[in-house]
Design goal:
Elements: E1 14-15, H1 19-22, E2 30-31, E3 37-43, H2 46-51, H3 55-75, E4 82-84, E5 88-93, H4 98-116, E6 120-126, H5 127-132, E7 138-142, E8 150-154, H6 157-166, E9 187-188, E10 202-210, H7 216-231, H8 251-262, H9 267-283, H10 287-298, E11 300-301, E12 303-306, E13 309-315, H11 317-332, E14 336-343, E15 346-354, E16 358-365, H12 369-381
Parallel strand pairs: 1-7, 8-12, 11-16
Antiparallel strand pairs: 2-7, 3-5, 3-6, 4-5, 7-8, 9-15, 10-13, 10-14, 12-13, 15-16
Helix pairs in contact: 3-4, 3-8, 4-8, 7-11, 8-9
Amino acid sequence: MLQKSDQFYSDLKVNRMPLPELFTRTELFYEVPEDWQVIITDIRNSTAAVLGGLHETVNLVATGSIVTVLNIVFKANLTVPFFFGGDGATFIVPPSILNQCRGALSLYRQNTLENFELDLRTGTVPVAEIRAQGERLRISKFSSSGMFTIPVVLGNGLSYAEKLIKGEDYHPGEVESVNEELDLSGMQCRWDKIPPPENTYEIVTLLAISAKGADQAKAFQKVMRQIDRIYGTPEKRQPISLPKLKLTTTFNKFGAEQRISTGHVNLLRTAEMWLKAVFGYFYFKTEGGKKYLRSMIEMADTLVIDGKINTVISGTEAQRLQLQEALTGLETEGEIIYGLYVSRESVMSCYVRNMEDDHIHFVDGSEGGYTKAAGLMKLKLRP
């Protein structure tokens, strides 16, 4: 049953302005209702899994947790803010769907543990508890294009929730069984690793947080201004481009997608997926297919702001060296702390409800870009 605050995020106005400007407009950020809950999913020991060559599986499992929740959100006719993190995800949800989400994620966790031997830790923290601890959680809606909208969070509320859930003392409690089976419909991971738009380019995965005592909004504004100055507009630094997209036809990837969804591999279903991939090669040459691909690039989730900046961009080595110099300067001045990882490709997994206007594509640097950038940042945070 819907409650009064359920439409909070749906009702927020979309802000269409340069992102650095949005950070200065504090009146456009709103406190999340206290009866909402933060849900965190996170793969335990993801760094070891990535170093062991399981970076694509880690991305797949993280994407599956998003699809699990978003299918519940869709059926409830709601929209909620969510954030892809490479090895997990974060959601802020109203109380009316909390138990459904927890139950579905509990089933999903069992499935990933049995099929991939990866433990997807899941936990929830009430927004009221975050606020009681003195942490802020303010949110705005932002769009730099006609179709794609992202949530932008200021405050350390989500970071607080993440630390709590990852702590040794955290216990998620009993989960009420309200889900009979998993619904991962719409989940697709059909694209091969994607080289950058130009052969001379590289893929940069960047994480940045504001340093202790710094003004978070101003620090983020400075980071985004440097990225804009060095790399240009979001379109110019977009790591995904039409000429570099290539559908995968490997049975291993089709099998992994099925194991995520159903816990087993069906040979007929695998053959069907392979035929669709072959058909897709021809479909994407049609006008309808080309339109989908263009919108897919626009809907690529290459920027996440959840109380930290997470982004995947492409450009030259010279541009990256300029960026590192600028970010190191901000770090030396006590404004930010950052981690950066360079790879030759990006990886993309998708959630497609329909091919027209309801799809989103989660992007990470190859070899576990987000996980490795986070590891480098954590080294700087050690006492």
